[in-house]
Amino acid sequence: MKINTSTSIAVAALLGSLSANAAVTIFQDTFNTADTPWGNVTNDLAARQAGGTTSSTYSLVNDGDPATDSVIFEGHLMMRIANTPPTNNIVSLDTDFGPSLLNKVWTLSFSQNRTGTGVGNGWSGFAVGTNSTHEIPFAGFGLIIRGTGGGGWTAFNGWTVVGGGTFPEDVAHEWYDITATFNEASNTVSVVMDHPIIGVENLGTFPTDFGTSNSRFVGFRNFVDLIDNFTEADLYTDDLQIEVLSSEPPPEIGDVRIEILPGTNALALTWFSGLGYGYTVESKSSLLIGGWETN
């Protein structure tokens, strides 16, 4: 919207987002930390998260070998399983988002890379559940990815397999992106994977059942059944983000008013806004010149 106030006063432009789906980031973690080179997962959590109102705590579950661990390494979350004895071994890292995601449409997105000399054993996965249990399958919705040797994926809703498939190429040793969109009104989740070799894969839409729980735990898993000594399976995660989506359109701007402030040579530009929406005012001295200046 552009308003020509007079020949001697600037032209003003009021710019606002008119997207039909506004997104509010409630959590963002790029896993940067001052600890080098091996940073503690729980250090500086508040500094790494966006929004400031989400109460979240990382927790770690170790089974078996002491070399199984989660750390911040070179700006990534690294979950390592190494030198595993002949028992199942899983490392699990969970964040409790409480009721902040309850009954909403929201997205979970992140980048991952599973690598290491023992990567051909086991799988990596993510889960959204109602508690921090690291059972297999998950207490809630979960998706696991096997990266090599006929690698594929399996989706779980609680103890029930609700989907699965294979990949045309191995997906290990490469960074890929996952976006999961949860619609808690319809009790569904849609999952998309973007891999540099296989491209964009729409894995499908699956049922979810969180029951009456008022908490949502987001967890990552790294699992192996057995790998040789002096080998490891590493799961790297980065750019973890959770956004709550609104299906409501932004409010109408309404009447834009511009008037001279009494007793001054200044102008006031006013419009109707809405909570959670941002606007930018740009101006120029004449329509005959190029470019706009942001006020």
Summed up:
By secondary structure, the chain is an all-beta fold.
Could you give the count of β-strands?
A: 22
What is the makeup of the main sheet?
9 strands, antiparallel
Shape: elongated
Distance between the termini: 15 Å
- Radius of gyration, whole Å: 24 Å
Q: What level of helicity do the residues show?
A: under 10%
Order of helices and strands: EEEEHEEEEEEEEEEEEEEEEEE
Residue windows where pLDDT falls under 50 for at least 5 positions:
1-10, 16-20
Q: Tell me the number of helical segments per DSSP (H or I, 4 or more residues long).
A: 1
The computed structural class is mainly beta
Percentage of β-strand residues: over 45%
Mean pLDDT: 76
